[in-house]
Design a protein that fits this description.
alpha+beta, five-stranded antiparallel sheet, globular
Length: 363
């Protein structure tokens, strides 16, 4: 009896410690991130984020651009639910950035979103001076957005630096890309797995000879083929996986490298294999494949035919939900280098959100 009582006491103490630890969680992380020690984290993917609550009117955050080559990078800051703008993180050591607090609220929330994509370098969140309070999150349904530069929100925001100036990462704004917009609109969590220029069987200017395609990089946490980097653990388990890949497969290339005619068989075969891999790790997900608002004319007809064949390939699959297709309307983009700008992304979100919301409500 004595031993039984002691065992119950130890169990009670363990449960108390675990509960206390969970209640005192100080940071929330989302997206493709690499968690380090001491509450530090590397923000990798587009719109990956760290959030925290704090008391008082003083707060600064410590950030560093970290990559194989040194260059600047960006985050977007949301304070108490309001977007307050971008921060440019110059190359070099960890830098401290004060956040201006204007409201008289006793408690505040900061959300730090990686503004640029994985291929544009990573950002280390090295901590904050704020007086932290606990933070928690409600359980929500989840959507993963897989795609290319359009999905990343690349070349969408020339508000700080004009399109014909600066570097590629200067015009990113993943916070206002269609995926995060949709997630905020319909109240879901989201994960962005996107890479500029990438395709299902070839990239915008490469026949899959020198550069990796999406099926190559997706299983790596950092969205590269670098074997020294951690594997992606598939812990997110989305309710819906939205895939928008094909704009670059249909591209005419850069006029320098060899560019062969579009190969429907390769596109379809690679897409089917990619979906099978996603099903293997996310067996309960509803997969939606989309066309591209940038692919028009005869190419759009071929594109739609390919998507239908991919959908039909899974028609007899009784283990998973049927593949669905969503078609964006054609668009003349107003962003940099032929990409949608933030206003265009609002239009894309407006088109797509009701479709995804209906899917989630029907579950």
């Amino acid at each position: 009896m004595f031993l039984k009582k002691n065992a119950l006491l130890i169990l009670f103490l363990l449960i108390s410690v675990i509960s206390k630890s969970q209640n005192q969680n100080k940071f929330l992380y989302a997206g493709r991130v690499d968690k380090l020690q001491n509450n530090q984290v590397i923000l990798i993917g587009s719109a990956s984020s760290v959030s925290f609550n704090f008391k008082g009117n003083e707060c600064s955050i410590s950030l560093q651009s970290v990559d194989s080559y040194e260059h600047h990078n960006y985050v977007s800051i949301v304070l108490d639910g309001k977007y307050i703008g971008k921060i440019r993180v110059e190359k070099g050591p960890v830098q401290s950035f004060p956040i201006k607090i204007t409201s008289g609220k006793k408690e505040h929330r900061i959300e730090v979103y990686k503004n640029t994509e994985a291929q544009s370098g990573n950002i280390l969140f090295a901590g904050t001076t704020a007086k932290l309070t606990s933070i928690s999150s409600k359980k929500k349904k989840k959507i993963e957005f897989i795609g290319d530069s359009i999905t990343c929100g690349a070349a969408s925001d020339p508000s700080d630096i004009p399109c014909n100036k600066g570097e590629y990462m200067d015009h990113h704004n993943s916070y206002y890309a269609y995926g995060p917009r949709i997630a905020r609109q319909i109240g879901t969590d989201y994960l962005m797995s996107c890479v500029s220029g990438i395709g299902i069987y070839r990239n915008w200017n490469d026949e899959n000879k020198d550069e990796a395609i999406m099926p190559d990089v997706y299983p790596n946490l950092y969205l590269t083929k670098d074997a020294s980097k951690p594997k992606y653990n598939f812990a997110f388990q989305p309710d819906i996986i939205s895939i928008a890949l094909g704009t670059n497969d249909f591209s005419g290339g850069d006029g320098k490298k060899e560019r062969l005619p579009f190969n429907p068989e390769k596109y379809i075969s690679n897409y089917i294999s990619f979906i099978k891999m996603l099903y293997e790790h996310n067996p309960d997900a509803q997969i939606v494949i989309t066309n591209s608002p940038m692919v028009n004319g005869e190419r759009a007809v071929v594109f739609e035919d390919c998507l239908n064949k991919i959908k039909n390939a899974f028609a007899e699959d009784k283990q998973h939900k049927a593949i669905l297709i969503f078609k964006f309307k054609p668009m003349t983009p107003k962003g940099c280098s032929g990409h949608p700008d933030v206003a265009d992304h609002k239009v894309l979100a407006y088109e797509y959100a009701p479709f995804l919301k209906k899917l989630l409500n029907e579950k």
